[in-house]
Structure formats: C-alpha cells, structure tokens
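Incident log entry.

Two folding requests arrived from the same account within the same minute. Monitoring flagged them as a possible duplicate submission, but the sequences differ. Recording both here for audit purposes.

Request one:
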Amino acid sequence: MSRRSTPSSGHGSDLSREVIAEAARIICEEDVLDYRSAKLKALQRLGQKSGPGSRGALPDNASIQAAVIEYQRIFGGSDYAGHLIAMRRAAVQAMKLLQPGFSPRLVGAVVSGAITYAHRVQIHGFADRPETLDFFLQDRGIPFEQDERDYRYPDGTEVPVPLARFEAGEIGIDIAMFGLDDLRRTPLSPSDGLPMKRLNLADAEALAAVGIEAILGSPTLS
C-alpha cells in the first residue's frame, strides 16, 4: 500500500507528533496490533532510536489510539465504518448467546473504534470455572480454539486468563473467561493504562446502533 500523509494528533513535540502519525499509519496499513511495536517501527523509519540518548520518550498509547481512529475516519471512510458496525453487531450476537450464564462484557478496540481488519471482537465472560464456556460452546456445535491472554491489574499483578477463540463469519470473536469476582475487578487497558471500559449487553446494543455517518463525523467511546 502506498505511503499516505497521516493526520497528526496536534500534541507534543514535532518528533512525538511524527511518531504518533507514523505509528497509526503502520497499525492501519500493515495490520500491526501491538502499539509498542508500531511505535518502535515508526521511530526506526523516522531515523530515530528509543532509550538512553534518544530525543524523547515514546508517545503514550492513548495518543496512538486516537490517531488510529482519526486515520481510519479519514482514509478508511465508509469501509472502515461499515466493518466497525459489523464487528459491533457480531459482538452483540455473541453476547446474547452468552448472556444467560456468563455476564458478558464488550471491551477493546471495537468499543473505542480503533480497529483494523486484523482486529477481533474482545468479550469478557465470568463463571466459577472457565471450562464451563468450553462445554457451552461444544454443546452448541461452535468450533473454537483454546488460548490464553495476560491481563495486568492496578496493583501491578499480571494474570493469565483462559481464552476461547471462534469465528462468526468473517469476524473473529475472543472470549476471555474470568472468575465471578472479576466482575468487580477490572484489568487495565493496554491503550491508556486505565481500567478497561466494559460494556454490558444493553450498552453494546446501543453502540451497535450507531450509524456510519455518526462514526465518521463524531468521536466514539474511548
């Protein structure tokens, strides 16, 4: 894909703005999901280095997330908005399936709008035993893969959480299975370091009802 002029966040030093813009372009055009990797790659392409002796610290992830959303609105346009709506609707359908026993919550890029075609829907579920979800999906004939993801908490601890991954048409769904007590114990978002925004089914349905014009013309939830 050809290199495009990327919108700037308008904050910080010239170098910081350049890194934010280039990192957002890398994420959107090269399907890089990890913000730190995108920032380091952006520094390298700008002829800079990180660490001691560098001209400045890496910009924060919240700035990158905002730049990704801005980039997608400008360059992704209706294709981006349509895919975001499809992901949000798929999330609602998955949450309705899980609603009776797992208190599902929608999290991540589908909530903020900072998505690319490489992103998957991220849902948190809650149960006494994580394998309950495996039995639930098996009983309904839904093929899935088991995985694991580390979540960091405000006290500094990092906890591995079981993950079930399946496909809903062309959209990937990841369900992280937490214990029941974790409904009141929220991990930190890798995007801004704050407790993750968790949407219940009603909030997710309201988000899925947001149309293309609103997505492209006004800020989304962060």
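Request two (distinct sequence, not a duplicate):
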Amino acid sequence: MDIGVAGVGRIGEMHATHLAELDGREAPDKILLFDPVPERAEAVADSLPEHVTAVASFDELLAADGVVIATPTDTHADLVRRAVQAKTPVLCEKPLGPDMPTMTDLVKEIDASGVEVVVGFQRRFDPATVAVRRRLRSGEAGSVYLVRAAIIDHVPPPKEYIPTSGGLFKDCLIHDLDMVPWLIGEPVVEVWASGSVLVDQAFADAGDVDNAVVTLRFASGAHAQLTAGRHQPVGYDCRLEVYASKQTLAVGWDEHAPLVRVEPDPIEPKQPWDSFMQRYKNAYLNELRVFADVIAGRAENPSPARESLNSLRLAEACEESMRNGRPVRLEAQ
C-alpha cells in the first residue's frame, strides 16, 4: 500500500513521520510527499527512511492508494474534490471546507462518489476519549448532566498561520464541537459564545480571538461548557470532564496536566505536554492505522465527511453568537 501526504508543514511532517513509524499490515510500502513550497518535501523525505520520497505535484499523489491532506485550511475543499474525482481515499485535516455552503456541496459529491473520506478529528481515535464514549453510549455512566472541556495551546501558533487558520472556533474549538456531540449522541439546540483578544494583537488584526468560552445546550437539557485559548504558560492543556447520573468521567487529569495546584500540599505538574502533537501522538498513530484499514476495506470510516458538517455548523453558530452577543437557536438536522 502506498500513501501520499499533501503539505509537509508542521502537521504534514508529523503525519509523514508517523506513517514511517507504522508497522505490521498498516505500514505503507511507499510514502510520497508533496508540498508547493520548493524543496520542503525533499527536506522532509531526506530526514525519514528510504521508502519516503518527494514528488513534484499533487496529481502524483493521487496514484497512491490513499492521500493525507495537511495543507492550509483554505485549500482542503479543492484538494479533497480532486482526490475524490480520482477515486483516491482521503484522510483530511479538519475542516473539509471553510463554510457551510462549500462543505455541503463537497459532502454531496463525496457521498455520491462512494470514495472514503476520513476527517482528521483525532479525539475520535484517542483511547481515553473512546472509552468515555463507550461508557456513555452503553449507559454505564448514566445520563449526562454537564460536560466541561478545555483546549488551550501552550504557545500561540505562528503569526503567519493566524490569517489562514479559519479562526479559533473553526481551527481549535472545532475539535470539542465535534467530540462532545459525538460523545453524548444527541443534537445541540442552542449555542452561546463569547471571545476576547488577550494574548496577541495579531489575532485581532486577522479578525480572530485568542480566548473563547462556549455553552452548548442539548435536546435533553444537558449542557456543555467549552473553553479555548492560545496561551497556557505551563504546557498544552486539553481536558475533559463528563458529569453523569452514575459516574463522573475525566480525561487529561494526570501528571501532564499543566496545572499549578495551590492546596496546602501543592502539586506541581511533572511532565506537561508541549503541544497537541505530543499530547495526541497515540491518537494520530491510531488515526493513520484506521485510515489504512479503511482503504483496505478492513474497517468502517469512524469520522465520515457528513458527520463533520455538524461541527462546522456549530463553529459558525459560535461565530454568529459572538458577533451578535446573543444565543443562537439551532433546528434539528
């Protein structure tokens, strides 16, 4: 099996490195890299094993058995469309498209084509998060009362990335906007969001915010409180709590949590994560293993394109709520 990687910036290089680490039946025979920046793909390929090579165009990747798309957000829809038209399965970083009209049209094409497109929401491949979902869906944890989630970068992203990121809701918080409804299994009926620029004026210059809070209300009356930010001075911060009628479940409350505890016997964080790539390495590896199995017909797609419409819809509702300063009601889909 040959797999291509389009875009080898920080995310694409990570995917290429992880592909080269895979073993067993999921390990690619060849890994092909393309990047529009001259010589970037060659430099990454030279740092990896011999079965990783650079190619001169995106079209050359489409001859592979599958392609990973890790280019800037505003290029995803076009490249996914080209891959689908070539009948090449895709693993694409989120989101597939920059807005709902673009996404809706693209998902219709994907559905009609029969080509598998896996959306890169890595939490769906994280063992602890999957365990939370299993307990919720089986009834073991009981009915959900409240969910709290935090996602905060250790250091802000590069300034040149900010204008093309899609914004805090579509770039960062979209992971929680995908994960929480996926865990609970019921629709969001109301969204309230607020944001501020507290870290760097560069976010305001790009029409973005660097700190935000979101409240989701679900059809059952359960709520989720989501927080996101671009700077956590101690380390990368990504935690989840689910309060339910039988159990309270938590993910991310371990020695890596970048929290300075100030009780009488204070506990300092021992090994805080530096970044989401370090924190979710196992999830990213699992994502690639599952993608290989999806290509080979050994597994069903756990993160299909149509489901990712919901997270983008919620992200746009967050943006609308923040602009207008009031909750946004959502009709059931």
